[in-house]
Amino acid sequence: MDIIISNASDKPIYEQITAQMKNLILNGTLAEGAQLPSMRALANDLRISVITTKRAYADLEAQGFIETVQGKGSFVAGGNMELLREERLKHIEDLMARAVEEARSAGVAPGELHDMLDLLMED
């Protein structure tokens, strides 16, 4: 599992871990039921505090992305692909809202914006 921590990021380390793990789950890299590294192992790999990985795992569990089984570890949650898809759609809507806001401030017509989106979707 490739998690990259950036000291230059304005996001706390636990949020960077959470966001990257969510993306790995949503894009299918981490499949339903896949076991995650232990908090201690991930902390060692990333050279960070176990407390930080614990916070990331707790956030992922609270959001329904992972399940933790006492004595066995943490696993990618199953049966909630629709919830995960909704999360992804919300993120896309947020990005599109920002793009629309930028387009309006730049005087881009709705038709032009549609054309841009169509071109981007073709790539």
TrEMBL record:
Gene3D superfamilies: Winged helix-like DNA-binding domain superfamily/Winged helix DNA-binding domain. This is GntR family transcriptional regulator. SUPFAM superfamilies: Winged helix' DNA-binding domain. InterPro entries: Tscrpt_reg_HTH_GntR, WH-like_DNA-bd_sf, WH_DNA-bd_sf. Residues 11-79 form the HTH gntR-type domain. PROSITE patterns: HTH_GNTR (PS50949). One of its GO terms (molecular function) is DNA binding. It holds the Pfam family GntR. PANTHER family: GNTR-FAMILY TRANSCRIPTIONAL REGULATOR (PTHR38445:SF7), HTH-TYPE TRANSCRIPTIONAL REPRESSOR YTRA (PTHR38445).
